[in-house]
What we know:
Chain B: It is a multi-pass membrane protein. Chain B: One of its GO terms (cellular component) is membrane. The structure holds two protein chains of two kinds. Chain A is 68% helix and 4% strand. By secondary structure, chain A is mainly alpha-helical. Chain A folds into two domains: 33 residues, no CATH class; 114 residues, Fumarate reductase/succinate dehydrogenase, transmembrane subunit (3 helical TM bundles of succinate and fumarate reductases), CATH 1.20.1300. A two-stranded antiparallel sheet of chain A has the order 1-2. In chain B, 80% of the residues lie in helices and 0% in strands. Chain B has six helices and no strands. In chain B, α3 packs across α5, α4 packs across α6 and α5 runs antiparallel to α6. The longest helix of chain B is centred in the C-terminal third of the chain and has 30 residues. The radius of gyration of chain B is 22 Å and the shape is elongated. Chain B starts with a helix and ends with a helix. Chains A and B meet through α1, α2, α3 and α4 of A and α3, α4, α5 and α6 of B.
Amino acid sequence: xxxxxxxxxxxxxxxxxxxxxxxxxxxxxxxxxxxxxxxxxxxxxxxxxxxxxxxxxxxxxxxxxxxxxxxxxxxxxxxxxxxxxxxxxxxxxxxxxxxxxxxxxxxxxxxxxxxxxxxxxxxxxxxxxxxxxxxxxxxxxxxxxxxxx
Amino acid sequence: xxxxxxxxxxxxxxxxxxxxxxxxxxxxxxxxxxxxxxxxxxxxxxxxxxxxxxxxxxxxxxxxxxxxxxxxxxxxxxxxxxxxxxxxxxxxxxxxxxxxxxxxxxxxxxxxxxxxxxxxxxxxxxxxxxxx
Lengths: 149, 132
């Protein structure tokens, strides 16, 4: 490879399956695609919310193990989850979980061959956002009612 | 040339020859399991999120009794297995996409898989300790 003249060349460095380098755009090519489009933004959000949910799984493990350990450990996890930081974190996890779930439905439809045209992609994308908001509010309404009881 | 011709004349089908030769050294197994676990997790997510919300602020005995209920314990165990499988599979794809060095890729994939296994066993043990 010659000396790079243009920094954009850094995003054109791919490898063939045998490992030899080849000049071709990486996907997603950040200089070519506008990542602020709804389609691109939701695409990367699907991945980010997946990572966020793995943090949520850590909370689930903590909650289960603490409950199995006894009232002391359960008190600690309850205290943390009902603190402002815990509530904020749980709220974020709820939104991320619903987004990932609803966006996953969209992916399953794509896998089955439906909804590939651009108008439908935008419509289902907007539906995912509205659905995420609705399910997050519903989940927290249930939580607040349970809390107040 | 003659050698090439001999290779072409093999009894193996083109599909049989390419199977397992991709960059992932595997076929559709990973892809399919990621989809199957996601389908199974759809109802489980709905059930768990709404149940967990209704346990907000619950005292120790109530939470413990909820986990101990056979219906909840069975679904929790299923959700744990599926969720950690789905997480490990998803993280593997992310690492394959972003890690450039082979050692980082291999260490990342198997490191995360090891952590997922341990956490799945720990949470399953917790459910069993409460429910049994």
